[in-house]
Design brief:
single chain, mainly alpha, elongated
Length: 173
């Protein structure tokens, strides 16, 4: 009996593992930031009602952290296909319309990710000299997650597109 090749031994398994690892890293960082956010709000409540001394840095840092959590989660969602998607129409369609709808949606995500990365980069450059009130770091830190998310969207969408094309090519042969 022939042994079925292990999926880890296939040539395209290494890029998949790297990209999956990158997406998991995004989720881990987002999770750690979420835990920090929860503790910082606990400190806010404790400071305000027990110490009668409200920590002023928490509001601005929370706004910043929420953007990082959202952007990292969105990138990972594209990689793992767990983002908000209404695909029953596409998946119920015959093969040719389904392929066309996949291509159109991938095109939109690529355009959106590229635009997000580019505009985020311009925002980072234009706000580099301005500090965020209460926490004193550069306003560029607010735009950095847009760049990261845009780049992740482009990378993960291209990888998903390549996988879909190679899977279709193998299925056709």
């Amino acid at each position: 009996m022939d042994k079925v090749p292990d999926s880890a031994a296939t040539p395209d398994a290494l890029p998949d593992r790297v990209l999956d690892g990158l997406a998991r890293l995004c989720l881990i960082v987002a999770g750690v930031l979420l835990v920090f956010l929860i503790f910082s709000f606990g400190w806010l409540v404790f400071g305000r009602y027990v110490l009668n001394d409200t920590p002023t840095w928490i509001e601005q840092s929370s706004l910043l952290i929420v953007v990082y959590i959202t952007c990292l989660g969105a990138g990972a969602g594209v990689r793992f296909n767990s983002h908000l998607s209404i695909d029953f129409l596409r998946e119920g369609a015959p093969r040719i319309p389904r392929v066309i709808m996949h291509a159109i949606s991938d095109g939109f995500v690529l355009l959106f990710g590229g635009f997000m990365a580019w505009q985020g980069w311009l925002m980072m450059l234009s706000n580099a000299g301005r500090p965020i009130p209460m926490i004193g770091i550069s306003e560029s830190w607010r735009a950095a997650p847009l760049v990261a998310c845009g780049v992740l969207l482009v990378i993960f969408t291209c990888a998903n597109l390549i996988q879909r094309i190679t899977r279709t090519g193998r299925a056709g042969s």
